[in-house]
Amino acid sequence: MTDYGTTAADPANRPVQVNAWNGWDPLRHVVVGRADNAVVQAPEPAVRRDFPDDGFPLGTYGPMPAEMTAEANEQLDDFAAMLSRRGIRVDRPTPVDFNQQVGTPDWTQDTMSGCMPPRDLLLTVGNEILEATMSYRSRWYEYLCYRPLLQELFRSDPRMRWEAAPKPRLTDATYKPGFWDTYNSLPTDVQLARVRDYDLVLTEEEPLFDAADIARFGKDLFVQLSFVTNRSGHQWLKRHFPDHRVHAVTSTNTHPLHIDATWVPLRPGLVLHCGERLADAELMEFFRLNDWEIVEAVQPASWDHPPKLSYCSPWLAGNMLNLDQNTLCIEEKEVALADQLAGYGFEIVPVPFRAVGPFGGGLHCATFDIERDGTLEDYFPRRHGRY
Q1: Any idea which architecture 16-372 has in CATH?
Q2: Cα–Cα distances in Å, from 169 out to 124, 172, 231, 314?
Q3: Domain residue spans in the chain?
Q4: Engineering a disulfide at 145: which of 67, 93, 298, 385 sits with its beta carbon 3.0 to 4.6 angstroms away?
Q5: Mean pLDDT per 10-residue run, the chain (387 residues)?
Q6: Is 329 a catalytic residue?
Q7: Does this model's pTM top 0.85?
């Protein structure tokens, strides 16, 4: 495992242990992604990349510019080193050549994607690490980047459960034909109605989910239905975690993709939501009934700083990493958000991270927690409606 140096709380002296029930208990062991070899994905049914102003109009693909990759890696490395100085054990994925054709007997895909956002693929619940399905053909083999680490964790922690959701076939039957040809031209109110009805790009041919569409609140797991997570994926997760309450939630975002910039747990009793994507009224009432305060995030600074080749929303500002219940890592330019949350008593750790966004997300996306202190707790003793 990667050693970023020793501190007074040297993580090398701690036994390896897989344990995490939520996103706010004290962080002890984490994975930080890499930007190496990342590409703009080749066209596929699940997703379209169209960056005409940045040299990659619809239908073109290939390696991310070398200078962008170098800057993103510098910020990722600095972030990993900062975490290590705080006594947190840090590991990294093993990149492969993502600019190659891959396939199965059902399909071929001209490129892969990258391994910057480990949060998309991997989920820790208690002593289990679960590999998500992934619904992009370009990400089908991404698990290979994490197999060396997972094998080492399995050897080191005799309690670890290593699970993988069924690898999907991703045939044409998995996707609604012609979806992208019409959806982006629809009026906003029609798009939102389709999101509420979960009438999006994926069919229910097979269970599909990204790990980043799952928010962990102890005994309760909230699964967002999105462009990459379908109802069948939610049902699979309910059956896989029978001792948890696994809730399906929908977004008020026209392009829902991952819950971790929309509905962000900060600590017991406090959750942040995206100011543009209010949760549905029933979910908000459920939280309030259980004495949770819901904070509406201020407008992000990233509205004024759109990076090149980025498919991320400006609300990536809320994609932050908790080091514990009182400490938040926030992108350094998001000063207004930092000030807002400092008002709730948080210590804010500003992290330069803007260059990482085009490679798949922010501070939460770029990490995957292996160990946090803490045990399974029930933060929602009162039921409400479908929750």
Answers
A1: 5-stranded Propeller (3.75)
A2: 24, 9, 17, 33
A3: 16-372
A4: 93
A5: 41 86 98 98 94 91 96 98 98 98 98 98 98 98 98 98 98 96 93 92 98 98 96 98 96 87 94 83 93 94 72 86 98 96 98 95 97 98 86
A6: no
A7: yes
